[in-house]
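Protocol step 6 of 9: fold each sequence in the batch and record its structure tokens directly after the sequence line. For illustration, a two-sequence batch is reproduced in full.

Sequence one:
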Amino acid sequence: MNDITIAELLPHQAPMLLLDKLLDYQGSRVRCETRVGARHELLLDEQGRLPAWVGLELMAQTIAAWAGMRGRERGEPVRIGMLLGSRQYQSQVPSFEAGERLVIEAECLLEDGGMASFECRILRGDLPCAEARLSTYLPSDEELSTLLG
């Protein structure tokens, strides 16, 4: 995984590329990492902390990294996906501290016709501090063109 940069896998660009790197990808599972800091400057509070609600976007970008790896395996370019919703986002912390290393994990539970459901969590060290189930949609190029008008 070390030779693949996160920017190669996601359609995001700075300042909204929130992940630092891909740690692992195996079939239905993916793990990414970020260290809270300058990369997140638009979203940080006055104390330099990242609000816990940003965890949803960290999870969504981790799912995008998974989709980027799957596309790479098929020789396809990076595509824009959509976060349709989340269920039961729970965070045990109000924010993530400046300098803190976060590992974000996602596992695809179900995939059908571009729709997918993922179980996600954010770890501080070895301990989970946030979790949710996210629903996503990966539209075809034609659908995306229609949606973006």
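Sequence two, same batch, same settings:
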Amino acid sequence: MRFQHRMRSRGYLEVQEKGARAWYPVYFHTGLLAIVPDAAARVGRSILGHRAFVIEPGILAVPSGRRRTSLPPGAPLDAPRLNDSDLRTRSARFGSLRRRVMLDAPAAVAGPIIGLLWLIVDGGGFAEFVAVSVLAAVTALWWSAIGGSDPS
């Protein structure tokens, strides 16, 4: 499932655990578009040894945050069932690096504002402003990506 909250879109894996539902935010990859509701999954380990879910057609879903027992914030958007042709088309469209950067870029707008605040507090010149602005913008892009943003 995907939850849209304000400008942020995040993918979650809805799991039945011991009779109760739980939601795990997951890192996006195009394989998640192939998951159908009620797909069989088992708990496994990712490359780094963290908890991960191996879902029916061999898709590895790695959590990007903590488990939630209550519904995540935002409007839930359920993934449609796709045939193979639509899946390939959507995977090519949503899996591109360009689309990921474009959807995560609004967070980078704060970079120049943080650079300006840095100059006010610490002083410095144009080079420091540029360095702090770029560092803040890149950090914002990175934070969105590790937060599990979902470009679909």
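Proceed to step 7 once all outputs are recorded. Observation for sequence two: The first strand starts at residue 2 and ends at 5.
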